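re: ur question from earlier - yeah i can do the single chain one, its not a big deal. heres the input i used so u can compare w yours
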Amino acid sequence: MPLLEPKPEVLRPGAARTPSPDRVPDVRATGTPEPLRGELTALLGPEKVLWTVSDLVKYASDASPYRFVPQVVVVPEDIDDISAILSYAHGKGREVVFRAAGTSLNGQAQGEDILVDVRHHWAGIEVLDDGARARIRPGTTVMRANATLARYGRLLGPDPASAIACTIGGVVANNASGMTAGITRNSYRTVASLTFVLPSGTVVDTADPAADELLAHAEPQLCEGLLALKTEIEADAELTARIRAKYEIKNTNGYRLDAFLDGSTPVQILRGLMVGSEGTFGFISEVVFDTLPLDRKVSSALLFFPSLTAAAAAVPRFNEAGAIAVELMDGNTLRASVSVRGVPADWAELPKETAALLVEFRAPDEPGQEAYEQAAAAVVEGLDLVAPVASVTNEFTRESKVISGYWKARKAFVTAVGGSRPSGTTLITEDFAVPPSLLADACEALLRLQAEHGFDAAVAGHAAHGNLHFLLAFDAAKPSDVDRYAAFMDDFCRLTVERFDGSLKAEHATGRNIAPFLELEWGPKATELMWRTKQVIDPDGVLAPRIVLDRDPKAHLRGLKTIPEVELIADPCIECGFCEPTCPSHDLTTSPRQRIVLRREMMRQPGGSPVETELLDAYGYDAVDTCAGDSTCKLACPVGIDTGAMMKDFRHQRHSSREERIAALTARNFKAVETSARLAVAAADKIGDRLLETVTGLARKAVRPDLVPEWLPEIPGAAPRKLPRTSRVGASAVYYPACVNRIFGGPEGHRGPSLPQAVVAVSARAGKPVWIPEDVAGTCCSTIWHSKGYDEGNAVMANRIVEATWGWTAGGRLPLVVDASSCTLGIAHEVVPYLTEDNRELHRELTIVDSLVWAADELLPELTILRKTGSAVLHPTCSMQHLGDVEQLRTVAEACAEEVVVPDDAGCCAFAGDRGMLHKELTASATAKEAAEVNSREYDAYLSANRMCEIGMDRATGRAYHSVLMELERATRP
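and the output i got, formated as tokens:
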């Protein structure tokens, strides 16, 4: 064991705990039992079998209120692996559940036996017919697919609120729709063809002209069974009419029986049945979508009404005017949304009875947009709108930022409202539809029912389609609360079916919590046909048992998860998974959601239990060490949970007092540390990479991998010993070269000025000279200590840099321009909690400007571009995302290059200062997709604006990245 390896028990929860009834039992502490583990390892290989209790726990939770711990998790790479898993399950009498993003809300992605992760190796999109169609793999998020299609002026029909995280496989398997899809743009209507693997292992490509012939040869009984069911349904006129009527409004409850009416052959029937089958009929390995036009002329308004029923009553009028979306939000939803960044703070003061409609029109051209706006104005004129707070305008706008803010608030319904629920309560999201003409009545009835059962009202939905969502929060550890939920569900389901003839699941699919009520909605005849369809396709019941069909009337009460309190920063988490695609470590170890899920399981356990001990042993590396600390999870989370901050705090807790003292000492003597580091980098050029890799590797083993960086061949040479000479007289700004740019030089082979020389030169050319203080050496943005959780050292440097900046800028009269985005973020925001009260006052007077903003806003208008490079690919850093200056990166790059590309898979590189040198596997995993996209073609320039991230991308791609400001200097050089 390394000398300074931290003790896992340091992170053991200290609070007194009552063991939860749903805790993982001690017998599961050893993970997957034998022979299951050994047999699957032999079948697939050890790298594809996740078996520790930590692995099993982190996959046991999803966005639903249910929690089932699988026996094993497998990670297949291709269809051969899928077929092997299914064959094994058949032979051993086991059950299989597929899981992709884990954003489904009804437990569809949870299994109690073999859980198959089909996200990791199943992403990708191929654009066909100039964008008219797209072939998409099931692990691709909707947002990622639409990013590619946008270049062709196209998009997918389904648009769920979870598009940032949900994947195509889940969208199709649940027939998820969203804000605008309704019943005409959903997967059932826009999927052109599917490739899927049946429970038997047979692979079907519905686009293959010979598909029916091949299926008849491979599965004759299946084909006969499907055609017999089709004949039976078509012979029953009453049943046929009922099936057609059920899909006149949104409905994802049960199987798509209209597939038997729409398809004439077994393959066509299967193509329809697979949509919305929730993984119970097979694995969808590929989807070809018919895409839709991306109408870019958008007009939207957020209109406020005195009551929910008044808002609902206005919906048909906007439908008639041609609105593509009419979204409803009640008062509780609006008030809870203030936790979402960008939502007006005064929404918190909205009266409880207030409601709002988010109305949107989209047109392909200006005349179409104007016509829609005229129609919308005529509707608004006849409405009694209210403006309870100052930010309410009740006006249509074309401004994209305003519209984006409206949608951000709407899409955060589940997470924002759920995040404000009482601590320790479980959240259930219900989803139903009624004929749109009955929406107002349904709203009134729902509110009364929620009040009768003691639930707070929180309602939102796709009002244009009669589709409402509401939330229920209760304590699953209390039998009385579970009984209250059960009584509500009985009354709610009867109300929806018997009074409104509605759909118990409009777009979230049946799952576990509506399965017991399937027959209530569909009746015994249609329900029995669904059971028989399952028997024909999956006669051995291998796939996803109890997820769509379940005869247990209390099945929806089984497996409800408790939500024990955890650290305050993470406690509001509802495990929605929105954070996962942005997390650099999600393909390597854990995601932010999983870090919280694991922590909650520790809180469920009695202190010192075998399960808790095993979880703690794994948590150090899986959660704490391999967190990049970039906090992009905070940006993706609708309620702003910063799991990265929690991991930094855990790093702090693991430090010994001696480590903290040493870290503080380096901060106090950073001038000497900086000089030594630059000299060491300079000396390294003469020593050679192989020897340095060997020496640092031995030191890491002896001391601790998370303390000693590993030498990487991509580390550049030393920066020039002296910074450029500048004058304070006449300076437009103070220029602060970050310590990384004072230590490390440019990329290997770079000819031309260094970054500090480039910034000084280009600023002078623009008539806005900058001054570099003579005493910048020994100062730092403090991120070095902040990222590692060294609080004392962080406080030392944070106060030093603020005091120095106050002096340099003459009390804030000049802006401070910082040439590394992470350092800008550090000085502008991250140092604040560690400042003394006096220095916080000084900090408020400072203007901290990122060099990208300085170049785009201040320099470019005054510069003449003399030459351009042909093409440039950009790497926007996570710090740029936090600062909001990605567009400035693009602006400067577009001034320097004829073609500028931001990869669709661009994300945090996870180099994170030196974390990529401490755990190079983290950067390798984080950058894999972006690097593949970058290397799919040649570019003339590879640009970013943060030296350590550039090094990380150098390593990932084999290309030489450099600052866009160096490129700007070249483009404007006389």
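Residues 241 and 663 are 74 Å apart (CA to CA). not sure if urs matches, ping me
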